[in-house]
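In the lab's daily routine, each protein ends up as an entry in a very long ledger. A line of letters takes care of the sequence, but it says nothing directly about the fold. The three-dimensional part falls to structure tokens, numbers that each stand for a local backbone shape. The outcome of that step, for a single protein, is printed below.
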Amino acid sequence: MLEKLYTQPAVLHRHQHAPCREERERFLEHCERHGYKRSVLIRLENELIWIARKLPVDVERGVTLQQVKDTARGWRERGDIAGRPINSRRTRIRFIQAARSWFQFLGYWREPSRAVPFEPLIEDCRTWMEHERGFTPATIGRLSEYLAQFFCWYEQSGRSFREVCIKDIDRFLAFYGSKGNCRTSVRNMAMSLRIFFKYAGSKGWCSSSIACEIHGPRIFAQEQLPLGPTWQDVQRLIATTDTNRSSDIRAKAVMLLCAVYGFRASEVATLTLADIDWEQSLISVSRTKRRTRQTYPLLPAVGDAIIRYLREVRPRSSVRELFLALRAPCRPITRGAIGRLVQERMRALGINAPHTGPHSLRHACAAHLVVEGFSLKEIGDHLGHRSSAATMIYAKVDLPGLREVADFDLGGLS
């Protein structure tokens, strides 16, 4: 691998006889397979040599983030060609990322452990939620985070878990709300605690009556309006991607899927090349909440945007996911990256919507279908809703229809 990067004998000799040659070469080959350019590999190799010389690795104990940060300080202060210190924060961050990636690849990286009080109870409940209740990994992770927050708060009381009572739950929910969390967030926290304490009561860890006494704030059905932008704003947003920039070409395909089909960010992120049937002009998606697959006709505008992305932007890779990161390594785009992609573009346009993200495009899609005259049943099927109740909120946006009702002649009864 080093022979591909360096042609000058003296430079090649220096890299070949530096510490951890075999480990460095394995990692560089791994990076090359994931699309790293030669210039990036050379820069990375220079960083790896410094790390190998300055940071002896204890295979048993591994390497921590603090050790890497200390080494990064020396890397920054080593100076440039003229001996001047390098004070770039970006250079330091890049060095730390390179060290972390290398040690993770070798299996030497040790993440700092976050001690969560009563963690065995949470783990037991996680197993129950996965195997007995069939919750998705995302739901289990979210509930676990809620439980960790409660237990970190409860630990300060210095009491055992068996002594917990409903007054503790009420005080915690009040504390949680005072930290700026909205009523919906407090309700979600209460629901998570109710699930856990129902299980804890069945196991005899605490009183079995606690779960039924947990009440969050009342949230009235359909009390909010849909949170998406107007369809005119969506059209403006899509129009900004009509350029030759790689990021815009990918963004157009992503946002069309969210706005036209109402796909969730997680559903777009998990789309694969096999999900598109070009011969039949169909696209299939795994619906996250329904746990079923749903097939749609592939509209020409969406198909053209995806084809252009595949031809001009998507790197060659063995990864089967449709959307990949624009920079090496060639890894699937994440749900969070899709969220940032849409949010930044909406804010740059000054789009004034309660929420700015891919899910707001889903709301805009539903609202547009209401205006176009589709029934709530048809809209719910299009969005992949499990019940019509989830679609009822969009009835509020049919202002022309509401005006027709208001103008209806009541035959003198008014």
Notes: The beta strands are 276-277, 282-287, 292-297. The two ends are 86 Å apart (CA to CA). Residues 80-85, 401-414 have pLDDT under 50 and may be disordered.
